[in-house]
Amino acid sequence: MDFALTDEQRMIADTANAFFAEGATSARTRAAMDAGGLDRELWRAFCGELGLGGIAVPEARGGAGLGMVEFALVAMAAGERVAAIPLLGHIMATRAMRDDARAPLAACLAGDAIATAGEADGEVIADDSSVTAIADFVPHGAVADHLLLLDGGRGWRIALGGPGVTVEPRATMDATRPYARIALDRAPAHTIPPDAVRQARAAGLLCLAAEATGGTQAALDATVAYTLERQQFGRPIGSFQAIKHRLADRKVDLEQARSAIYWAACSLDEGTSDAGTAVHAAKAFCADAFTRMAADMLQLHGGIGFTWEHDTHLYFKRARAIAAMMGSSAWHREQVAAALLDRAA
Amino acid sequence: MDFALTDEQRMIADTANAFFAEGATSARTRAAMDAGGLDRELWRAFCGELGLGGIAVPEARGGAGLGMVEFALVAMAAGERVAAIPLLGHIMATRAMRDDARAPLAACLAGDAIATAGEADGEVIADDSSVTAIADFVPHGAVADHLLLLDGGRGWRIALGGPGVTVEPRATMDATRPYARIALDRAPAHTIPPDAVRQARAAGLLCLAAEATGGTQAALDATVAYTLERQQFGRPIGSFQAIKHRLADRKVDLEQARSAIYWAACSLDEGTSDAGTAVHAAKAFCADAFTRMAADMLQLHGGIGFTWEHDTHLYFKRARAIAAMMGSSAWHREQVAAALLDRAA
Amino acid sequence: MRLGFTPDEQAFAAECRDWLQARMHGDFADIRGIGNLVAKPERRRDWERRLAADGWSCIGWPRQWGGRDATLTQQVIFAEEYARAGAPNRLNHMGVELIGPTILAYGTPAQQARTLPGIAAGADIWCQGYSEPGAGSDLAAIRTRARRDGDEWVIDGQKIWTSLAQFADHIFVVARTAEGSRGRDGLSFLLVDMRQPGVEVRPIRQINGEAEFNEVFFTDARCPADALLGVEGQGWEVATALLGFERGVSTLAQQMQFRNELDAIVAQARANDAARDPLIRQRLAESEIGLQLMRYGALRMLSRASQLEESAAALTYKIQWASWHRSLGELAIDVAGQAGEILDGPDGGYGPLANLYLYSRADTIYGGTNQIQRNLIAERALGLPREVRGDR
Amino acid sequence: MRLGFTPDEQAFAAECRDWLQARMHGDFADIRGIGNLVAKPERRRDWERRLAADGWSCIGWPRQWGGRDATLTQQVIFAEEYARAGAPNRLNHMGVELIGPTILAYGTPAQQARTLPGIAAGADIWCQGYSEPGAGSDLAAIRTRARRDGDEWVIDGQKIWTSLAQFADHIFVVARTAEGSRGRDGLSFLLVDMRQPGVEVRPIRQINGEAEFNEVFFTDARCPADALLGVEGQGWEVATALLGFERGVSTLAQQMQFRNELDAIVAQARANDAARDPLIRQRLAESEIGLQLMRYGALRMLSRASQLEESAAALTYKIQWASWHRSLGELAIDVAGQAGEILDGPDGGYGPLANLYLYSRADTIYGGTNQIQRNLIAERALGLPREVRGDR
Q1: C216 in helix, strand or coil?
Q2: What is the distance, to the nearest Å, from the Cα of residue C8 to the centroid of all Cα atoms in its chain?
Q3: C213 touches chain A (CB under 8 A)
Q4: Is C315 in a helix, a strand, or coil?
Q5: D179 catalytic residue (yes or no)
Q6: How much is the pTM?
Q7: Rounded distance between C-alpha atoms, residue D384 and residue A332, angstroms
């Protein structure tokens, strides 16, 4: 047992942080928000120059051969900058493609093709080679080339350029990750085995939790800096105890969120029996912590944080989106409760 | 519409406050805690000299002919001092006895007999003249002479001195209102009509909510006084913003609790259609507000509030007891939700 | 203490209801239920004038100035019927509810004659020039200056967070008239015409993409010498008195808007089965209870404003409604789920529930943040020590 | 970053488990699962001695002083197996986990030889003399004095909230040795024998009716001159260093106690059907998640205590566990319902769930209130301005 990051893990985190700090600027993100929510140049650099597109994919399949801990560090870095990249769908889809020799994995890892994932809403009709379904809220669905469609324990890979596919872009509150409604009408589909479906979903939940934790860090940093600078009643507002205590509580949240990420990521990598609970816990806790922090960021910035020009709303809306995606916090807690209460007394 | 207290109502409140401030001292309450939770002398004075035992009973039945608003003012005053009196069972039972000519109302109003009320736990077997049941948590059950037994919409009046009655006193966390377990085995019983049952339960819930509101007031006053006096780091702790803001939130709670009491009491007196919702709302809100205030009282008093000698625990335990009696806050909110959601769209 | 209405009051309620329902299902049906504050401003000006024409513009004002001398209960009844009918937010809330009563209290007969008829007639829309950049909730930090130039005041400075300034004809401005003064001293309260070259309005785009709030720049803006309300240097007192009217009967109208919002959430919850979720049900109940307690709290404030106990209710009201409304926004978006995040509202904007979620975040900030409110409550209602200023 | 144990570590775990289970189902079965800190003190002294006899008293200490030089992971394993077996709270927690390591760090060889064997052997029980009446969490406000008298220090003053003082043989005392000194200056750290006429212990009856805490009065109490740990005037530093050991491996043992408490609540919820209430289920899940996050937070702290990021985890740990435990107490009584309020525990005292409810209220007070913790986090981890003292 050694629950500290290795030197290599720290290096990966540093590299990713530097990459997004330089590349995912507010100006570029806002430009991407007007262009389908995708900063394609940033994404290509992430996959290509940085080589992080395949961080958690085995070397034999063209990846870096690392694990979920390393991926989580990268996702936290992306979340810190609210980067407009299709990381969520990418990790889910590529996770599902790992053991699928015919999957377009190389193009996805290189950033040449964009993969995404979405849950089916309503009834799904599938046979060996095609699927009929609707997915209402597919992240980055309008710019994606491949879709991993999930329905409970079942999954399919679908080429979005193929027949029987209708993609309807949807203007979305979090414009850094807009949804699309994808309707499939006997679209050609490749079936994904249940274990890969499970792993894809776990990776997606971890991605959201890690993005949330990165977002919490960035929002806390920005708010601390603002409260030190902003004067009211002749003092920096950060000297008022009510504000100090509020931010202290968010720091306590943040430290717990980090523990949640490491627990979930390690459990997935090591395949422990509580990995499912760990992932549910991480999604619920980290999404809630980010929601609280983003709300405090808005409140403590006062009027300026309520303007479109300030970046506060990017974090506020991202927090909302994460909280609602792939199951609410209450739903994930219910899964934890079920595991706890069903455990032999 | 005039939602201010009348001069007469203010006078009743002042009288009750003065009575309990003088009579329900910490020393007397603590003595009562070792004597079945009953300060019989105080109760006799309340009923007799003050004549408040029949405040909400019609003059024709020997009462003062006032209503639930006036009763709530008195219950708030009793709650402020955590008085060890059987007010809860009394108001429920006497409410149910109003239209029952054979009931021992006069003795109860005079304070010579003590009436209480309790919910049946488990199955109730009843015929025209007797009842078999168990009531697990009857407030002041061990010192009571008459029991109003409730089971859903049904109710019975039982003389506890009669045959088929077993009363087992129970040491209770809130020793100012200890429970008894009362087992009835074909005990002679007088049936109470459903409307009287409903009114008795509403009066009981209002009593608890009003006691909670009085308790909130007293706990807030005591805590404000303590934080002004107690020095830490060379300042009164009440000058620290975190403490100021915490107590401000409790003041906001308190004002809302008062509104809840007046709403519920007026609605009962005027028989409005939302009276049921008002009573559920008052119980849930006021119990929760008191729970928060009592917790803060303990926290902000520091170590001293954690000692048996200090009165903090009397409020803390009373708050707990009120929260658990006659349905949890969540249960009462669920009733409000049901009324809201079942309302025609 | 009595909740019920007398037969006379019931008759008045019927009169209000009949008139409002007829309009909202007749010639003004196109603006029924509009919650959005910046939509259809011209139609809302029409509506202000129509209210005035039929005597409903400012029923609490004296008859002399176009009101009806309505009793408190009548005002309560009208406010509630108004919102119940889905009549739109008053474009001239600031005029009718805030500056009008303040001019009645502090204005000279000449000032009253000059300003009140335009407000009563629904012709003159007013806005509020209090907040400044950098000053936030700290009125004493105001830097906008006004200097005397012959028969006029000349105003230079900047206001911010000025709600609906883009539609307003007049603005009331707190400015520093005593050169070199600090804090609360040396401020005066001026009534200024917006339609002049020295006044420039720049909308502030908000997180929901719309612009209710504005910056207002004053560059050699002018008003007559006798547009100063009260006496020179009395600005703090007048400004504070005006804020007191915010807790008037209009709070009940606001609450009925809240009721309409809660009803919309309930309807959504029924439609998408969120109403079957026990956790959502708890929160719906909390919202319902909170709204009722606001109502009865407001009735306590209004019924006997002078009683000590009631003034505490007044002091706690801002944080109560602001926090309640912010929570309602959170409930709205949770009930809506991911569908609530799709921009499918009119003109491609947010739908009403998402807009409520975003917009309600401002409530705990403007008009004194929750933090400021807690200070006030702790110091004024509980007698706890004042916060230390850094600059004293 | 790795969670799993090596085969060697697994073997060690088995050794711990076997020994502990044998004792807890054998000659010490009568104190298995005792959560109450004041029950059966004599048997718990026996237990301390038995741990020592078999080499389990202080496995993290050096072999030279009766320990096993256990690795961090071994300590983690033992702590968790200890609590899992239902072994009782250590009566000598203060000796083994706090003063022992402090004496190892600051003690002279002679002091170490005089004190450590008694602790390691389970013979000498220690308690902590920090808090004073009126000083609360403010260590700098200490007023207990110690003056030099020949070869001895003579101590006068009063300590309060001294946990388990009624069972202790020794107390470590922070006292003012420089006359007229203020604040952190002029304090020294003394090792004092409780068994002398100048030391009087008065139990404090708590809201749950029991008395874990005490007042300790010093009236001409004495200790040898060389019972001063560190150097004269270094008391603040030594006292603070000792508090650092509170975040050691013993946190994991505490967490396993918490796990036992949560298990008891789960069992109660299953028994009375509270487990079917969706709201209770949410809170049970929150408790479970919070406990797991404490565990992994502690492992982060312990695995690389020197890393910057980890020190923030250490700074936030007290408020985290204290608030978690207080919430657990609230959940316990809510799950128990009214039945939980009946005093049906052993000796007519509170049952375990009610006791947890009451007792856990102290957690957010002692050892630095939540308010103090938030100040520390804001100032040290976030760099926000320090609170203004009133007396400077």
Answers
A1: strand
A2: 30
A3: yes
A4: helix
A5: no
A6: 0.96
A7: 35
Contact A67, A262 (CB under 8 A): no
**CA A41 vs CA A28, A32, A83, D224: distances in Å:** 10, 10, 12, 74
> ipTM of the assembly?
0.96
Contacts of D388 in chain C (CB under 8 A): 388
DSSP of C128-188, one letter per residue?
EE---TTTTT-GGG---EEEEETTEEEEEEEE-S-TTGGG-SEEEEEEE-STT--TTTTEE
Q: Which residues of chain A have pLDDT under 70?
A: 343-345
Cβ contacts of D279 on chain C, cutoff 8 Å: 278-279, 282
Closest CA to B328 of A281, D1, D331, A58: D331
C124 within 8 A of C118, measured Cβ to Cβ:
yes
Strands of A179-188's sheet, edge to edge?
Answer: A125-126, A130-139, A179-188, A165-169
Could you give the count of Cα atoms lying within 13 Å of C18 in the half-sphere of its Cβ? Answer: 7
Please give the C-alpha separations between residue B333 and each of A56, B337, D376, in angstroms, as whole numbers.
47, 6, 38
For residues B34 and C330, the answer to whether their CB atoms sit within 8 Å is: no
| Nearest-10 crossing angle of helices B275-301, B194-229 | 30
Element (H, E) at B183: strand B179-188
Q: For residue B216, which of B249, B238, B179 has the smallest C-alpha distance?
A: B249
Please give the helix or strand (H or E) that residue A198 lies within, else none. Answer: helix A194-229
Distance between CA atoms of B129 and B162, rounded to whole angstroms?
13
Handedness of CA D377, D383, D384, D388 (dihedral sign): positive
Which burial class, exposed, middle or buried, applies to B7 when counting CB atoms under 10 A from its CB (0-12, 13-18, 19+)? exposed
Residue range D73-96: mean pLDDT, rounded? 91
Pairing state between β D214-224 and A231-232: unpaired
**Per-residue pLDDT, C34:** 81
Interface of D with A in 258-277 (CB under 8 A): 266-267, 269-270, 275
Closest CA to D345 of D208, D213, D206, D204: D208
Q: Tokens representing D121?
A: 């052997």
Listing DSSP states for A205-240 in one string gives HHHHHHHHHHHHHHHHHHHHHHHHH-EETTEEGGGS
A296, two tokens: 């405090």
- Contacting C residues, span 363-392, partner chain D, CB-CB under 8 Å: 388
Find tokens 């199951």 and name the residue. A327
Q: H or E segment at B127?
A: none
Give the span between the Cα atoms of B84 and B24, in whole angstroms. 8
Alpha-carbon gap, residue C55 to D269, rounded angstroms:
63
Kindly give the parts of chain C with pLDDT less than 70.
136-137, 305-310, 345-348, 390-392
pLDDT-derived band at D136, boundaries 50, 70, 90: low
- State whether C365 and A299 contact (CB < 8 Å): yes
Residue C203: CB partners within 8 Å, gap ≥ 6? C166, C211, C213, C214
C328 neighbourhood in chain B, CB within 8 Å: none
Q: How far is CA D304 from CA A159, A210, A306, C103, D221, in A?
A: 46, 21, 40, 68, 42
Residue B226 has pLDDT above 70, yes or no: yes
C-alpha–C-alpha distance, residues C124 and A90, integer Å = 57
Tokens standing for residue C118: 């335009």
> Checking DSSP bridges between strand A115-119 and strand A146-151, what pairing results, if any?
parallel
